[in-house]
Amino acid sequence: MTDSAPFSSPARWAERAANSAVFFCNGLGIGAWAASIPLIQARLGLSDGALSLVLLGFAAGAVLSMPLTGRLAPRFGVARATRFCALAFAAAMLAPGLAPDLPLLIGAAFVLGLTNGALDVSMNGLASGIETRWGAPIMSSFHAAFSVGGLGGAALGALMATHSSPWVSAMSLVALINVATALLVWRALHDPEAPAQAVAPAFALPGRAALWLCACVALGLLLEGAIGDWSAVYLANNLAAPPSIAAAGYGAFSAAMIAGRLGGDRFVARFGQARTVRYGGLVSAIGIAVALIAPQPLASAIGFGLVGIGVSNVVPIVFSAAARTGSSPAAGVAMAASAGYSGLLLGPVLIGALATLFGLKASLWLLAACAGAITLTAGAMR
Fold first, then answer.
1. Alpha-helical regions (H) of the chain
2. Can you tell me the distance from the alpha carbon of 28 to that of 321, in angstroms, rounded to the nearest whole number?
3. How many whole angstroms separate alpha carbon 240 and alpha carbon 45?
4. Each residue's pLDDT tens digit, 175-233
5. How far apart (Å, rounded) are the C-alpha atoms in residues 2 and 15?
6. Which domains does the chain have, with CATH numbers?
């Protein structure tokens, strides 16, 4: 297939569908991992402090692998890297459920994070190349597949929660699904050119324009992480919502994010990346205000849903823009993804620390400021 082939050719559709399947399976794995964490904690009798070490191990593995993958993937080809990283991620999913004690669980979580970070960079780098050859904005559709997979993995984890064991669990089932999918799409994932023989340039600090991209993705993932961890707590503790209603906050956020990403490519094609990010930041800020001002849990959940719509396309757009700024698409994505993970890790912790000092409601207003700050970074998308 040459770059002059029409973007609607069957080969390009197959390439796009294959990488979308990889995104879906990655989301499926992350959703199953999130749903399995409480079960693993109960099985090993871990305290919250011990569990935080496990989650830190996962994050450390991801942060370590992202810049390395961004440097090495161009040498071997991002499609080839995506294939093998997808298999490695699937294999790594088996280990946490089988870990017999805390040290081995931390090690298993580290390896899972390591493979997830590598897959994140490689599949997004490949998606950027597909988008370039496609000739139209399609990055949001890949991330929509990830979000749908995440909900599916979480739902599967909930269904199997009462029937799981170390050997038969949502994570082991998803691992098998991911291996089968990786093998199924293997031939459809390919690089349009021979991979570069020289090693990609060593890691360097991003320039001024790239720093704005890093700030934007960090703020976007800070919002995602904070809403994910604190929306249900806010509805339960501040608005006295029962557990079934408290979960509606994150449910509305997740469903709205999927809807926003499914329509994101059309919005970007019509309004451009910069305006989409700017409008997204404004909608997110309004959503947080609605969520915190609303006196009823369901009305507050609608506000969290607005946040999901607003922030839904920030990460796909930044990854698409970052892929154009690095020495290679994978290197640019690695830069943005590393910054994004810092925001994802910092957000929930920062909100928790401020909540102990000023109360949860007051601390969540910081997220409105973060959403407003996203609008200031929108010009960097050009």
1. 10-44, 48-76, 78-92, 94-98, 102-134, 139-159, 170-184, 208-238, 243-262, 264-271, 273-293, 297-311, 314-322, 329-358, 360-376
2. 26
3. 29
4. 999 999 999 999 888 876 544 444 444 444 556 667 888 889 899 988 887 887 678 77
5. 13
6. 10-187 (1.20.1250.20), 208-381 (1.20.1250.20)
Residues of the chain under the 50 pLDDT cut:
1-7, 194-204
Cα–Cα distance measured from residue 37 to residue 177, given in angstroms and rounded to the nearest whole number: 20
Burial of 55 (0-12, 13-18, 19+ CB in 10 A): middle
| Token pair of 320 as six digits | 């698409």
Q: How far is it, in rounded angstroms, from Cα 233 to Cα 143?
A: 27
Give the number of other CB atoms < 10 A from CB of residue 382: 9
325 DSSP assignment: T
Contact present, 242 and 291 (Cβ < 8 Å): no
Contact between 329 and 140 (Cβ < 8 Å): no
Both tokens of residue 56? 């830190």
Tell me whether residue 372 is exposed, middle or buried, using C-beta atoms within 10 angstroms of its C-beta: 0 to 12, 13 to 18, 19 or more: middle
Per-residue b or e along 14-53, where b marks 16 or more CB atoms closer than 10 Å to that residue's CB: ebbebbbbbbbbbbbbbbbbebbbebbbebbebeeeebee
CA-to-CA separations, 110 to 102, 157, 314, in angstroms, rounded: 12, 21, 27
In angstroms, the CA 271 to CA 90 distance is 38
Neighbour tally for 369: CB within 10 Å: 11
Query: Which tokens belong to 355?
Result: 């909540």
